[in-house]
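User: For my dataset I need records formatted as: sequence, then C-alpha cells, nothing else. Please produce one.
Assistant:
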Amino acid sequence: MQRRFTLRALTAAVALAALGAPALAADTIKVGVLHSLSGTMAISETVLKDTVLMAIDEINAKGGVLGKQLEPVVVDPASNWPLFAEKTKQLLTQDKVAVIFGCWTSVSRKSVLPVVEELNGLLFYPVQYEGEELSRNVFYTGAAPNQQAIPAVEYLMSKEGGGARRFVLLGTDYVYPRTTNKILRAFLKSKGVAEADIMEEYTPFGHADYQTIIAKVKKFASEGKKTAVISTINGDSNVPFYKELGNAGLKAKDVPVVAFSVGEEDLRGVDTKPLVGHLAAWNYFMSVKNPTNTEFTKKWAAYAKSKNIAGHKDKPLTNDPMEATYIGVHMWAQAVEKAKSTDTDKVIAAMAGQTFKGPSGFTATMDMKNHHLHKPVFIGEVKADGQFNVVWKTPGPVKAKPWSPYIEGNDKKKDEPDGKSKL
C-alpha cells in the first residue's frame, strides 16, 4: 500500500513538473564570480575574486540571505574578452547564479553586457570607467568620470596641484582610456588648453617597453609650460611603466603622473621610492583613517592569512576596487532581503536608495535612478612604502554623472536605465 502511495505521489510530482510547477527551492543561493585569474589582468582582478569570497563568508556567518547560504561559483575568463561573454552565459544558464560580481576592463564589461541583458541577469561592476552607458541589468559601484577623472585634472590645474597647463594622455589601447581621454580633451579645451598642449599615446595590453614613450614625454615636458601625465594604463603594464618612470628620473615635482587604475596592489612589485609624490585618484585608499576602514583592513588581513592568499598573507593590502566590490556584495544582499526574492526585477527595484557604510568613511548610496553609487573623491600621493597620502578630497559623496556634459548630445540623454543599455 505504501509502495502504491509513493508511486502515485511520484506520478503526480512528474505531472506537476511537466506543467511548469516550481521546483523545490535550492538549499543555497548561487553567486557568480567573474574575474581574470590569469593573463594580463590577473594582477588587478585576482584580489577582487578574494574580496567577493570574503564578503560571502561574512554574510554566511550571519545566517546568509533569506535564510540560505550563499554559494560562490568562480570562473576564470583569463583576460580574454570574448571568454567573459561565454563564462557569463555559463553562469546564468548552467550554474543558475542569482547575480554576478565581476569584470575590470570596460571591454570585458561590454562583452558581458548583451548577455546579462538578453538573459535578464544581474552584474555588479566594481571599477572606475568611462561612463557613456546605462543598463538596467548592471550596477556600477566604481567611479564615473566626474567622480575621478575630472576632479583629478582640476586638481592638477589648481595652484595646490602644481598649475599644470600641458597634458600627456597616456593609456592602454581600449575603450576606457580612449573614451575617458575624449572627455578630458573636451574638458581641457573648455578650460582654454590648446590642442598643441595635449599629447595622446596608447599602448596595447601587456606592453612592457616604455623607454620610447617616456623619452617622448620628457621631450614634450621640456617645451615650456608645466606638464602633467594622466595615466589610464591598465593591468600588468603598470609595473614596467613605473619602473621606466623611475629609471628616467621623471620626478613628481617636475612632471607629476596621476593614475586612475593604479592602487596599492598594483605598486606591490615596484620600487616606489623614485615615485614619491606621483598621484592616484580614487574613491578610497587603504591609508584613510576611520573606524570602518580599520575594521575592513583588519578583516582582510585575517582573511588573507587564513586563506593563505599569495602576497597578502604577509603584506595585506586593500584598494579602491576591493572596497567597491565589498560594498556591492553587501548592497546586493540587503536588496535581496528587502525584495524577499532573488528575482532580478525585484532586486533591481530594491537596489534603489540602498546605503552601506564603506571603508572610505562615507556612507555609499545607490542612486535612486542611475544605478551608480554616490561616492567621495580622494587624490593621494605615492609614499615610499607604496601607500598613499591623501592630499585632496571632496567634502562628501559626489553623485555620478554617467553621461559626461563634455560629450556633445549628452544633455538629451536620460539619467535612468530603460530597457536595453544605451551605448
